[in-house]
Amino acid sequence: MGQASRRPAEASLNEAQLLDTQRAFDSVAEDYDGPRGNNELIQRMRGTLWDTVSREVPAGAQLLDIGCGTGLDAIEFARRGYQVVASDWSPAMVGRTRSRAAVAGLESSVVAVHLGVQQLDQLQEEFGGIYSNFGPLNCAPDLHVVAQECARLLKPGGKLVFSVIGRICPWELGHYALRGRFRRASVRGTRGPAAVGMNKHTIWTYYYLPREFYRAFAPLFSLEHYRALSLFMPPPYLVHYYRRRRHWYERLGRLDDHLGALPLLRDMGDHFLIVMRRR
Ligand SMILES: C[S@@+](CC[C@H](N)C(=O)[O-])C[C@H]1O[C@@H](n2cnc3c(N)ncnc32)[C@H](O)[C@@H]1O
C-alpha cells in the first residue's frame, strides 16, 4: 500500500457537519439496537469483530471503543474480561451505553465518555487495543490525526481493529442500479464527504477502499490483515432479502467467512475489517 497523502484541508469536515452527524445519531439512539442498528446481518458482522478483537488483544487489557453507539460491543467485551472506555460523539448514544452497563452490572468495567473521534487528544489512558465498529471512522474529519492519536494511546505492539464502510459494495450497486437509482448506486464513489440521509438528518461520511484507509495509518502502524464483511451477504439494510430465504443466504454468509480475506474479494463488501499493529 502506498505513501501517506493528506486530504486537502477544504475537504475536511467542518463543525457544522460534525454537528449534523451528531444530531442524526442522537435522533435514533433510543431504538438503535433494534432492527435499525442490530438486525440479523449486523449481528453476524458484529460477531466477526468480537472474535477478531478477542484473538488480537489479550483478555484483561484495556480497550478503547471509538463510536460505541448503544454499547453492545463494549458490554460484550466487558463480559469477555476486558476493561472498556466506550466513547461516542452522540451524547444520546453515550447515555444508552451508560445505562446498558448499569443494567448489566458492569459499570466497573465499562466507562462511557462523550468524546468525538476528533477529540482523542483529550484521553490520557493507555490501551492494549482500540476498536471501532460499523463506520464511526467514516465520520472522522482527519484520519491522519486519528492515526497519530491512536499511536499515542496504544501500548507498543497494541492492535487496532476497525470495521469501516467500503467503497465497492456489489449488492448496493446492483440493488439501486436495477431500480434506476444511479446516483444512489454511486454514492460510495464520492470523493470527499458524502451527505447520507438518516431519520431526516444528515450524516457526513467518507467512503474508503482498504488501501485508501490504511494510507493514513501506514507511517505508525503495520497492516496485519483485512477482509470483506457482507460481500456475498447483502448489506444490513437489505435484510429483507435474507429474511425471505434464510437458509440460502446463510450459505452466502459462509462464503463471506471462507473467501472474504482473499485478494481482490477483500477490497469489496459493505464493510471491511482491518487489523493494524502499532510499530
Ligand atoms: C453506525 S453507528 C455504530 C455504533 C456502534 N459502533 C455499533 O457497532 O453499533 C456509528 C456511531 O458512530 C458515532 N459517531 C459519528 N460520528 C462520530 C465522531 N465524529 N466521533 C465519534 N463517534 C462518532 C455515532 O454517534 C454512532 O454511534
Structural features:
single chain, 279 residues, alpha/beta, two-stranded antiparallel sheet, 11 helices, 9 strands, 22% strand, disordered N terminus, binds S-adenosylmethionine, Methyltransf_25, methyltransferase activity, transferase, SAM-dependent_MTases_sf
Describe, in short, the structure shown.
This protein has 279 residues and is an alpha/beta fold. It has one domain: Rossmann fold (3-Layer(aba) Sandwich), CATH 3.40.50.
Percent of residues in helices comes to 25-40%
Shape: globular
Structure class: alpha/beta
Mean pLDDT: 95
The hetero molecules present are: S-adenosylmethionine
* Intertermini distance: 16 Å
In terms of quaternary structure, the protein is single chain
Annotated CATH topology: Rossmann fold
What is the top-level CATH class?
Alpha Beta
Backbone CA Rg: 18 Å
Protein name: Methyltransferase
Domain Methyltransferase: 64-158
Pfam families: Methyltransf_25
InterPro entries: Methyltransf_25, SAM-dependent_MTases_sf
Structure description:
The chain has 279 residues and is α/β, with parallel strands linked by helices. It has a single domain, classed as Rossmann fold, CATH 3.40.50.150. 38% of the residues lie in helices and 22% in strands. It contains eleven helices and nine strands. The protein has helices at 15-28, 35-38, 40-56, 72-79, 91-103, 143-153, 170-178, 182-185, 210-215, 239-244, 246-259; strands at residues 62-66, 83-88, 110-114, 127-132, 154-165, 194-198, 201-205, 221-229, 271-278. The protein has a seven-stranded mixed beta sheet. A two-stranded antiparallel ribbon has the order 6-7. Helix 4 links the parallel strand 1 and strand 2 (83-88). The chain is globular and about 50 Å long. The two termini are 16 Å apart. Mean pLDDT is 95; it is low at 1-10. S-adenosylmethionine (SAM) is lined by residues 18, 21, 25, 37, 66-69, 72-73, 88-90, 93, 116-118, 133-136, 139-140.
